[in-house]
Write a structure and sequence with these properties.
There is one protein chain. By secondary structure, the protein is α+β, with helices and mostly antiparallel strands. It is elongated, with a radius of gyration of 46 Å. It has helices at 15-23, 45-54, 115-118, 183-187, 191-200, 215-254, and strands at 4-9, 26-33, 36-44, 61-66, 72-81, 88-95, 101-111, 122-125, 129-135, 143-146, 155-157, 167-168, 175-180. It has six helices and 13 strands. 31% of the residues lie in helices and 33% in strands. The protein starts with a strand and ends with a helix. It has two domains: 4-97, Ribosomal Protein L25, Chain P; 103-191, Beta Complex (RNA Polymerase Alpha Subunit, Chain A, domain 2).
Amino acid sequence: MAYTVKATQRTDTGKGKVGRLRRNGTLPAVMYGHGEPSLMLALSTHDFNRLLDQIKGHSPIVDVEVDDRPAQKCVIKTLQRNPMTGDLLHVDFQQVHPGEKVTMNVPVIVHGAAEGVKQGGMLDHVLRQVPVHAAIDAIPERFEIDVTNLKIGHSIHIKDLGRPDLEYTLPLDSPIVAVLIPRKLTEEPTAAEAAAAAEAGPAEPEVITEKKPTEEEAVGETEKGKGKGKAEAKGEKKEEKKEEKKDDKKKKDKK
């Protein structure tokens, strides 16, 4: 589909005059090309904003009609906006001759519900635009990709676009869209791991064994036992002596 921009050539330059144009609803612009003199243009701000809405999702290729001259094939090269309000301030058109190669970002439109998403994966739209270097007439308005059959863990790359006639400024194996594997799925054991675990059977219970004393510790315990036995023997002898004294005292009292 061809998009047309109607413009008039202007001679007014300077900050003050350009400011008046904007206040009156006119957008200043310039058209330039290889071997062609630059033209200062003026166009309707309202109409150009409507055109920008129409070409969303398409390559920025337009036909620029200046007064009564034949339309010129151009690329919308630069848009200058007010950083505070976002209003358009200026636009640059690059004139392109038939057969001349240019570099342009071509939008990518994705269709369908990916099978991998239904399996629990997450769709990642890596490239929303693909940079292409080709003749103006060969550049598509957009790339359309159907992801219906895209499974989890799989990707669609630039080489899968089916346009080998185009030159790409990115590697052909660059992914455009992919279905990522969620972390929770990667942490689950695979079927092979689960089968191996089943064959191994239940894990044996952990047996806690007492630590065997070393020879030195055993000798120490023996010496402790001997010391304790001697102390108990001394205590018994003291008790026996006390009992003997008590008995002798009773006998003397009876006499």
